[in-house]
Design a protein that fits this description.
Helix content of chain B: 55-70%
Largest sheet of chain A: 2 strands, antiparallel
Strand content of chain B: 5-15%
Radius of gyration of chain B: 25 Å
Number of domains of chain B: 2
Largest sheet of chain B: 3 strands, antiparallel
Distance between the termini of chain B: 33 Å
Shape of chain B: flat
Strand content of chain A: 15-25%
Helix content of chain A: 40-55%
Number of strands of chain B: 3
Number of helices of chain B: 7
Oligomer: heterodimer
Shape of chain A: globular
Structural class of chain A: alpha+beta
Strand order of the largest sheet of chain A: 1-2
C-alpha cells in the first residue's frame, strides 16, 4: 500500500581514511563521539549518518564532505 | 533518580522474592493458623507480612511517580528495559523499535477489545422452554458493552441447555495487564535486535 520512495544509495570511504590514519573503529568512534557499531555500520554502507555526523566525520578527517560521501545510485 | 528513589528501587527488586515467598507459604499452609502460631514461625510470618505492606506502599509510590514525572519515568524505565541511546544510530533503532512495539500492542488491544465485546452461546432447547415451531438447537450472539461492573453478571441466559458459552476474554485483569507489559517490553527488545542485525 502507498507509493514506493526513491532512495539514494550513498557510498563512503571512511574505512580507507581510517586505515590511512591507522586507527581502529573504536578509536574513531571515540573521536567523533559515537559507538563502534555505528562506525561499523557506516563503513559497511548499512547506515547513512545524519548531516551533522557526516560533517563531524569530514571535519575530523579534514576533508570536504563530498570527498568522503557520494551518491552511488538510486533504488526503490 | 535521587538517592532515596535508588534505595527504594533496590528494595522493590530485592523485596520481591520475599513477597512471592509469603504468597507461596500462605497458599500452601493455613494462613489463619500461621498468624496464630508462636515462636520463630510467627516471627518470620509477621516479618514477611510487614515486608509485604511496605513493598506494596513503595511500589504504589514508585508507579505513581512514574506516571507523574517524565524525568523519573525515563530514569527508571530506561534502565529497567536496558535501553541505549548513546548516539544517533541507537536513537533511530529505538525509534523504529518503539513504532513496532506501539503498533503491535495497539493491534493486540483492538483484538482484546473485540474479544471482550462479543458473547456467543450455542445450546439446545429443552422441552420446557421450547416454543412451538422453534428449532432444536440455537445460537445466540450478543455484545457486552458495560463500562462498569462484572460483565459476566450482565449476560442473560439464553435458556435451554448451554453447550458452548463464550462471554468475553477468559483472563483476569491482572493477567491481561501483565501480558501487555511483557509483550510491550519483549516486542521492543525483539525489534531492537532485528534493527541492529539489519544495520550491522
Amino acid at each position: 500500500m502507498g507509493k514506493t520512495k526513491m532512495k539514494l544509495k550513498i557510498k563512503n570511504n571512511v574505512h580507507v581514511l581510517r586505515a590511512e590514519r591507522r586507527m581502529s573503529q573504536e578509536q574513531l568512534a571515540g573521536e567523533i563521539e559515537v559507538t563502534r557499531a555505528t562506525i561499523n555500520s557506516i563503513e559497511k554502507g548499512n547506515y547513512n549518518p545524519s548531516l551533522e555526523l557526516a560533517f563531524r566525520i569530514a571535519e575530523f578527517f579534514e576533508k570536504d564532505i563530498t570527498e568522503i560521501f557520494s551518491v552511488e545510485g538510486r533504488y526503490e | 533518580m535521587n538517592r532515596l528513589d535508588r534505595v527504594l528501587f533496590k528494595y522493590i527488586v530485592l523485596g520481591f522474592p520475599f513477597v512471592v515467598g509469603l504468597m507461596i507459604w500462605g497458599g500452601l499452609g493455613d494462613a489463619s493458623q500461621l498468624s496464630q502460631s508462636r515462636g520463630m514461625v510467627r516471627n518470620i510470618w509477621d516479618s514477611l507480612g510487614w515486608n509485604l505492606m511496605a513493598w506494596i506502599l513503595v511500589s504504589l509510590y514508585f508507579t505513581s511517580k512514574m506516571v507523574i514525572s517524565k524525568r523519573f519515568r525515563s530514569a527508571t524505565l530506561v534502565s529497567a528495559t536496558k535501553m541505549h541511546e548513546r548516539d544517533e544510530r541507537e536513537v533511530m533503532i529505538n525509534g523504529n523499535a518503539a513504532k513496532f512495539s506501539f503498533l503491535s500492542t495497539l493491534a493486540i488491544l483492538f483484538l482484546f477489545l473485540f474479544m471482550s465485546l462479543f458473547t456467543v452461546t450455542v445450546g439446545k432447547n429443552t422441552d420446557v422452554n421450547k416454543v412451538a415451531g422453534e428449532k432444536e438447537n440455537f445460537i445466540s450472539i450478543g455484545l457486552n458493552l458495560y463500562p462498569f461492573g462484572d460483565k459476566n453478571n450482565n449476560v442473560k441466559s439464553a435458556g435451554g441447555v448451554e453447550l458452548v458459552n463464550y462471554s468475553g476474554l477468559p483472563l483476569s485483569n491482572s493477567m491481561m495487564f501483565m501480558f501487555l507489559i511483557l509483550w510491550q517490553v519483549a516486542s521492543f527488545k525483539i525489534a531492537v535486535k532485528r534493527e541492529e542485525s539489519i544495520l550491522d
